[in-house]
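Field reference: "sequence" (input) and "structure" (output). Example, YcaQ family DNA glycosylase:
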Amino acid sequence: MLHLAAQGLLQPPRRRAQRDDMLATIQRMRLLQIDSIHVVARSPYLVLHARLGEYPQIWLEEALEAGRIAECWAHEACFVTASDISLHRAWRAQYESNHWADRHAARARDANLKEMHALLERVRASGPVRASDFERTDRGVSGWWEWKPEKRWLEAWFASGELMVTRRERFQRVYDLAERVLAKLDPPFDEAVMAWPQADLRKRFILDSVRALGITQARWIADYFRLKPSVDERELAPLLADGDLLRVQVVGWDQPAYVHRDHQALIDKAREGRLRATRTTLLSPFDPLVWDRARLREMFGFDYSIECYVPAAKRKFGYYVLPILHRGRLIGRLDAKAHRAEGVFEVKALFLEEDVKTSERMLAELAAAVAATAAWHGTPKVRLGRCRPATIASVLRAYWRG
């Protein structure tokens, strides 16, 4: 429950979302991962919807253009709040990353440094550019290595920090010089952070990870910001001694758990049985709750993998499968597609976990969660395919007809 509370997934929102709620949600998670697949809403919008309920998706683009949030490489490509971007730029300036984006950027610079500098000078002289501003001279498909050269070069400069994303147009990046993007940030970019020692930055990321996770074992901490090397109990000992972290025991875990001191009140509520999960919602495949498969299995007993990158013949559940969170438990998953022109939200397949015992309330809340997501997509008509168990199909369809 503490994990869900920290992530903003314990209970439904008490009021209609406001712009500052979106910013607070990103700050609470520390990262909002970006992914461009849009068979339903693209992942960052869906992650926010799970926590905020109905809100205008345009808020995210408006916040980026206004400098309230920024894009960077962190867990993966992510949105972060303006107040955090200095941490990420300082870390990447000091840390030699082996991330795939950095490897491809290095190859691009090695092979095309003259052309890349010419592109950078064009941005400096003429202002922001999109990859679509450059005509393609060859045929390509998806992936970094199949992008046209200018797109690879723009991404290489973005990965190394010379360019940043100043806004998005139809979700396509618009690149500008980092100095111009940083100048518009609100709150302003904190130059002093760039001088922090790497050890202080790593400590900050560890503490932010534990705060965002709510409760965690040491072995799960590094994945949140993709820290290397991994975090162990020896590294956490000084943070315990200083009172930054608290150590607790969780029934059924063979390893100690760690909680940020800011969550002391949540620990007290949990011990008193006053943390009650009442939220039912659909999660993005790239939600922080499901990033770490080992953590997910340990905390929720839920085995999950993203199958959109798996050949169709090898998929077990479907292309874009959304985990279903119901009152503190992951009870199943559904494969969905939004047919926007038709106003139809298609649930191709819905699978409850085999040990889930259904109830009238559970199915009503599940149906309501799907309907709310569908309406937010502008696809209010829900069409259901196959189900497991098959007996719930008629019940769900009745809710959506009614």
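Residues 182 and 289 are 30 Å apart (CA to CA).
The chain has 15 helices and 13 strands.
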